[in-house]
Design goal:
It is a single chain. The chain is α+β, with helices and mostly antiparallel strands and about 150 residues long. The protein is built from two helices and five strands, in the order βββββαα. The protein has a five-stranded antiparallel sheet with strand order 3-2-1-4-5. The longest helix is centred in the middle third of the chain and has 54 residues. It starts with a strand and ends with a helix.
Length: about 150
């Protein structure tokens, strides 16, 4: 298993002790999960300064297989997080624009629907001979309106 750990060294002239404080574990799906901090002996980590974050590959009973400075991984993760935040911000702005556009289109559609219903009411009050000509004209206008609404 792969862990993110912090190197801890006790200061002593003769008996200098190096340990790893395990902080997080890499789970399936490349997801880091925080764990309850656990300290394990790690004489292999003596080449690292105290406080340095390392990637530690561990096997059976926390036997250290491999150690690597975690700086590059952490920097890359922070850069990726920043890029994702920028993309999310752009997508939110686009979504807001679409929302405003849809609201505007709905308002225009509602306004034209009211106008159409008013004209239809006027037609119902007309004489039958005048009504046919007006209905044809109104039908053409409605088709033009729906075509324009679909294009917008």
């Amino acid at each position: 298993m792969l862990y993110l750990a912090q190197v801890q060294q006790s200061s002593g002239l003769i008996n200098r002790k190096t340990e790893l404080k395990l902080l997080a574990q890499l789970k399936p799906g490349l997801v880091w999960s925080e764990i309850a901090p656990e300290v394990i002996p790690a004489p292999e980590a003596s080449q690292f300064s105290s406080g340095v974050l390392v990637l530690a590959e561990l096997q059976d009973q926390h036997r250290i297989v491999k150690l690597k400075d975690a700086t590059s991984l952490l920097v890359k993760s922070l850069q990726n997080t920043s890029l994702l935040q920028e993309k999310l911000s752009v997508q939110r702005a686009e979504l807001n624009e679409w929302k405003h556009s849809l609201i505007y289109q709905a308002q225009v559609l509602n306004h034209r629907t009211v106008e159409f219903e008013q004209r239809l009411q006027e037609l119902r009050q007309m004489e039958p001979s005048d009504r046919l000509d007006q209905l044809k004209h109104l039908g053409d206008e409605y088709e033009d309106f729906t075509d324009a609404a679909l294009r917008d």
